[in-house]
Amino acid sequence: MAKSERFIGIDVSKDTLDVHVLPEGKCFVFSNDIDGIATLCRKFGRLRPKLVVLEATGGLQIPVACALGIKKHPVSVINPRQARDFARATGRLAKTDKIDAQVVAFFGQQVRPEARPLKDEQTQELSALLSRRKHLIGMLVMEKNRLALSFGSVRNDIEQHITWLEERLDEINSRLGKSVRSSPIWREQDNLLRSVPGVGEVLSTSLLANLPELGKLDRRSIAALVGVAPMNCDSGKYRGKRRTWGGRSDIRAVLYMAIMTAIRFNPVISKFYKRLTDAGKPHKVAATASMRKLLTILNSMVRTGQPWAYSPS
Predict the structure, then answer these.
(1) Is there a contact between 8 and 52 (Cβ–Cβ < 8 Å)?
(2) CB neighbours of 248 closer than 8 A, spacing ≥ 6?
(3) Cα 123 to Cα 179: distance, rounded to the nearest angstrom
(4) CA dist., res. 290 & res. 238, Å (int)
(5) Interior CA angle at 109 toward 105 and 114, to 5°?
(6) How many angstroms separate the CA atoms of 266 and 293, rounded?
(7) Is 288 a residue whose pLDDT tops 90?
(8) CA atoms 129, 131, 252, 217: torsion sign
(9) Which of 11, 24, 230, 286 could form a disulfide with 18 if both were Cys (CB 3.0 to 4.6 A apart)?
(10) 133-168: buried (b, 16+ CB within 10 Å) or exposed (e) per residue?
(11) Maximum CA extent, the chain
C-alpha cells in the first residue's frame, strides 16, 4: 500500500461526525449539520482520501455521503453489521463513536469495499416517495384492523383517517408515475421491465429507485446484492443447507409479490416453479429460486436493452 493512500472512517450520529484518518491515526469531530459537513468536505479536499467509509445509519449518513460524492470523493456506505463483525474479529470489543470511526477506517484500509456511485437527487426523491408509500400502506392496514374492533365516535374517527390515508396514497402513486415519466431513461427502462409478465408498476419503480446496479453486474453479483443467492454452509464432510443471507430487503419484498403473479402468468417462471415443486422443493425454496431467475432475466434485459420475448420452443 502506498504511503500516500489515506483511508477515512466516519461514524455518523445525529449531532456529530467522528472522523478517523489512516495511516496517520488523526481524529476529528465535526457537527452533523450544513456548516459541519461543508467544513468536513474542505478538510477532505486537502487530505485527498483513497476511500471514505461510512456505516448506513437509518438515513443519517445521506447528507454527508451526498456532499462527499458531489466533491468527487470515493465513498462506500457499508452495513453496520459488517463493521461490528470486523471489530469483534480484530478484538475491538469496546464501542464509542471514536472507536467506531477507527474501526470503519481500518475496515476500509484492509477490506477495501467497492466505492459505488451515490444516488442523484432525482433518484433519492423517487426512493423517498416509495418509502412514504410503504409507510402509508402500513398505516392503512393498521387502521383497517382497528376499524373492525371499534364503535361509536372512535369508529367515525378511524373511517375519516382511512379516507385521508387513501387520498394521500393516491397522490403518492400519481407522483411516482409522473417522476418515472419525466425521465426519458427511466421511461425507457420502465417500459422494458414492464414488458415481462408479472412485473408491474411497483416492482419496476422499486428497481429504478433502489437497484441502480441492475444491468451493470453479472447474474451472480446481482442475486447476491439483492439477497436471493444461496450461500454455502459446509465444513469438512458436513454439507449444510444453502440459505440466502443479507441483501436489500425492500427489493426482495416487492420481488416476492411479483413472483406470486409471475407463477400464474409468466410461462418461463411458471414452468421453472412447477419443476422445482414437482421435485419436492418447499414453496419458500421454489419461490426464492424463482425470484432469483426473474431478477437475472431483468438484469440481462436491462444490460442488452432487449424487451421480453418468449418462444415456447
Answers:
(1) yes
(2) 210, 211, 225, 226, 227
(3) 9
(4) 27
(5) 95
(6) 12
(7) yes
(8) positive
(9) 11
(10) bbebeeebeebeeeeeeeeeeeeeebeeebeebeeb
(11) 73
> N- to C-terminal Cα distance for the chain?
54
Contact (CB, 8 A) for 98 and 123: no
Amino acid at 312: P
Q: Is the pLDDT of residue 214 over 70?
A: yes
- If 0-12 CB within 10 Å is exposed, 13-18 middle and 19+ buried, where does residue 220 land? exposed
pLDDT tens column, 166-183: 999 999 999 998 989 888
Q: What is the DSSP letter of 144?
A: H
More confident residue, 246 or 180: 180
Give the chain's mean pLDDT: 88
**Cα–Cα dist 247/227, whole Å:** 4
pLDDT at 1 over 50: no
pLDDT in tens, 181-195: 888 888 999 999 999
Percentage of the chain exceeding pLDDT 90:
49
Question: What are the grid coordinates assigned to 241, written together?
Answer: 443447507
